[in-house]
Write a structure and sequence with these properties.
Number of strands: 6
Number of helices: 4
Oligomer: single chain
Distance between the termini: 8 Å
Radius of gyration: 15 Å
Helix content: 25-40%
Order of helices and strands: EHHEEEHHEE
Shape: globular
Strand content: 25-35%
């Protein structure tokens, strides 16, 4: 299993770097060329969402991006350190389905809707230590990362 981990301060200008790194690693592990734009856009949305959450909650902790190639699947996890709302519990956020069916969308919900439109395999979770968006794509070729 090959893993690349990226941490960056919650500044919008670092989102572009995360997108470029994600696309480069995706290409290297064998994600199809036609899917790379989706990877770039989805990572950009997820990182922008995390940056926005950190900034609006006054957090100085870095945004986490973990890129993993394992068993013919390339996964990206984008994590924030914003705890779930009190009483909201933890676990999988029902937001993906609810967002797609809702009428009035917030900026956060719009980002989740865009991600769910770009990625077939996406999971959003939130807990006391923060939230995570996990996205994955199939790998066509043989991994070059060692």
């Amino acid at each position: 299993m090959a893993t690349v981990e990226l941490r960056f301060s919650a500044q919008p200008e670092h989102v572009r770097t995360a997108r470029l790194v994600a696309a480069a690693v995706a290409r290297r592990v064998g994600v199809e060329e036609a899917v790379l734009d989706e990877v770039r856009l989805a990572v950009g949305e997820a990182c922008s969402r995390a940056v926005g959450l950190h900034r609006s909650n006054g957090l100085t902790a870095p945004v986490r991006v973990v890129l993993t190639e394992d068993d013919k699947v390339f996964s990206i996890e984008v994590g924030d350190e914003v705890p779930a709302p009190a009483g909201g519990g933890s676990g999988t956020v029902p937001g993906i389905t609810a967002v797609l069916e809702s009428e009035g969308e917030t900026e956060d919900e719009m980002g989740l809707a865009v991600i769910s439109g770009l990625v077939d395999d996406v999971e959003v979770s939130s807990g006391e230590s923060g939230g995570t968006i996990r996205m994955s794509w199939p790998v066509a070729g043989v991994s070059e990362l060692t």
